[in-house]
Design brief:
This is Platelet endothelial cell adhesion molecule. Helix content is about 10%, strand content about 50%. The chain is mostly beta strands and about 625 residues long. The radius of gyration is 60 Å and the shape is flat.
Length: about 625
């Protein structure tokens, strides 16, 4: 016992030596009963309120041990404050002059040795934001000049998004982690511009928006430079006319500031340079109808002059068509190239010529824009060109795709053909340009038609026949401009079974013990036929067999009395409809030799009885006719 006390004392001293700040007994026992967090003065406070986050831990321990407590304050699951203490007093985390950024969900965690506890969360909401302040480094500028703009959110912290506005329209956005943002704004239009800003403090998942800042007015002065755009002719312009275009600069006298002129139409750059004037000429085409632009660039300033030009077509874009619309290889065809409209005041119809490309297309010109020949065996692309007064216009590509003649269709059945029941017939041609019209014919009379327009479609016809020879009367016709007939439909017709009979040999009334009995089951219909014989009262068949004949028999050898009863048969073929005969009553009579034997025995018994009777009669009569001498004894 004394040795154990020494060991515990030594352990305590060593623990104190190696952990001088920790005075917990090696055998300390404690429990963290509760951790709670509260906001003072309230969970909802206005801006600039001094807020205190109070964390209270209730810990029970054995004895007077001093426990090291590690407190951690978390805001939205992120650690914001930590402290280790041996005091049992509440932990206080101050938030002086609270701002919107301080809003969030707070929790408190306490750790003592290997035990941890976390409080429930408390949400702090700080309402109200300071008014933003806007400052500009200039109040009067020239157009195109930049101004430095600074927006400040006094006293705010955290992640802040600043918004800058020009004439009530948002023009920039900056996100920073400080309480101000600075940016540059370029004014491209003259006059008085009003600027202001606003900001949003982001506290995930919430955001708090400020009010509008003060308004700062900026005066933008125009620089005395003007672009001038001139286009000749001024009035109605036709294709083939020459367009003279000039882009020039009007500047103040004695001003030599560098400039850049750019002449363009849409996305096409026509001319550019640093001189005070650009000249450009072109032959007017219909595609030149639209807006021309003369652009002046002076440093960061851009000025634009625009004019619209309308070019009247001499003739419209030609169209190339084919007649007939569909052709087969080597069939005659006609290609017609034609411009639907022309400017008759500038162009005569005879001045417009047409050519076909490629020139070796095996088609011969037969008039203005008319080309004739025969379709090729494969697809071929054609275009035509209309030309007049140096203007050339080409049609869209016309692809002539000769139709592939349909091949002779195959006619098949998709299921078993059973007399009197519906079945499907498939008509299909292996080659041929779609669409293909398939017509089912019966004795060359149309029954139904299906049009196949897509490769995955099929021509399936549902029919019913009532006679076996009707099957060969069906044929199929395929037509895609060329017609082809199939062969006659060849398929096996299954006739359902009917008229089942059960024949007995020998005939009824002549069936005796020891005979051989034949039960012959017969039907009408298509073999193979599966026959089954049953005895009434027994669910399982006595015998089953499949035959390619319409009748077969079941033999019962060496008949006996117990074979008497009612019998019937069932039959089924590929039509899957079973038929059954009427029951037949079989009575097995006694064998003839048994009857003869019984008769002989009876006759023998009668003969023996008759003989005994005769003998008895004779013996009795003999005693009556003979009298022996009387004696005393006999007398007595």
């Amino acid at each position: 016992m004394g040795r154990l006390t020494l060991i515990l004392l030594t352990s305590t001293l060593l623990s104190s030596y190696f952990h001088p700040g920790r005075v917990v007994d090696a055998q300390s026992i404690f429990t963290i009963r509760e951790v709670s967090l509260s906001m003072e003065p309230s969970n909802d406070v206005p801006r600039d309120t001094n807020v205190t986050v109070r964390c209270r831990a209730v810990v029970s321990s054995l004895g007077q041990e001093v426990l090291n407590r590690q407190y951690t304050i978390l805001k939205d699951r992120v650690q914001v404050y930590t402290k280790t203490t041996t005091s049992s007093e509440d932990l206080l985390y101050p938030l002086p002059m609270a701002r919107a950024f301080n809003s969030g969900k707070y929790t408190c965690q306490i750790a003592i040795e290997d035990k941890r506890e976390v409080s429930k969360y408390q949400k702090l909401t700080v309402t109200g934001l300071s008014k933003p302040e806007l400052h500009l480094n200039k109040a009067v500028v020239n157009e195109g000049e930049e101004v430095t703009v600074r927006c400040t959110a006094p006293g705010e912290t955290g992640s802040i998004i600043f918004y800058f506005y020009e004439d009530s329209k948002e023009i920039k956005e900056e996100q920073v982690s400080s309480n101000y943002a600075e940016t540059k704004i370029r004014f491209t239009s003259t006059g008085i511009h009003k600027c202001h800003c606003a900001y949003t403090v982001v506290v995930v998942p919430d955001a708090f928006r400020s009010e509008q800042s003060n308004i700062v007015t900026v005066s933008v002065k125009e620089i005395p430079y003007t672009p001038v755009l001139e286009i000749l002719p001024i009035y109605k312009i036709y294709e083939g006319d020459t367009l003279d275009i000039s882009c020039s600069l009007r500047r103040p006298q004695y001003n030599s500031q560098s400039t850049q002129l750019i002449l363009s139409q849409g996305t096409q750059l026509l001319s550019s340079g640093t001189k005070d004037k650009l000249n450009h000429s072109l032959v007017a085409l219909a595609k030149h109808s639209g807006e021309f632009e003369c652009r002046l660039e002076i440093g960061n300033v851009v000025k634009v002059a625009k004019k619209n030009v309308s070019v009247t077509e001499l003739f419209s874009l030609p169209t190339l068509t084919m007649s007939p619309v569909e052709v087969f290889p080597r069939e005659p065809l006609t290609l017609i190239c034609k411009s639907e409209s022309l400017a008759s005041e500038r162009l005569h119809k005879e001045e417009l010529t047409y050519t076909l490309e490629p020139s070796d297309a095996y088609l011969i010109p037969r008039g203005a824009g008319v080309f004739q020949g025969k379709a090729l065996n494969a697809d071929f692309n054609y275009t035509c060109t209309a030309t007049a007064k140096g203007i050339m216009k080409q049609s869209k590509i016309l692809t002539v795709r000769p139709k592939l003649p349909v091949s002779a269709p195959k006619i098949t059945v998709l299921s078993k053909v059973i007399l009197g029941r519906p079945f499907e017939i498939l008509c299909n041609s292996s080659t041929g340009t779609l669409p293909i019209n398939y017509t089912l014919l019966h004795d060359y009379m149309p029954m139904d038609m299906i049009t196949v327009k897509q490769p995955y479609e099929e021509a399936r016809f549902t029919v019913t026949i009532t006679r076996t020879d009707d099957i060969s009367k069906y044929i199929c016709q395929a037509n895609n401009g060329r017609k082809e007939l199939s062969r006659r439909l060849d398929a096996t017709v299954i006739v359902p079974l009917s008229h089942p009979t059960l024949t007995v040999v020998p005939t009824l009334g002549e069936i005796y013990e020891g005979d051989h009995l034949y039960l012959i089951c017969g039907v009408q219909g298509t073999p193979p036929v599966t026959f089954k014989w049953y005895r009434v009262g027994n669910e399982n068949p006595l015998y089953s067999t499949t035959s390619n004949s319409n009748n077969t028999d079941y033999q019962v050898k060496d008949l006996a009395k117990h074979h008497s009863g009612m019998y019937f048969c069932e039959a089924i073929n590929p039509a899957n409809t079973a038929v059954g005969s009427n029951p037949v009553t079989i009575e097995v009579r006694m064998a003839l030799w048994k009857k003869a034997l019984i008769g002989g025995i009876c006759l023998l018994v009668l003969a023996v009885l008759a003989l005994l009777f005769v003998l008895y009669y004779r013996s009795k009569r003999g005693r009556e006719t003979y009298s022996p001498p009387a004696t005393k004894a006999s007398y007595i």
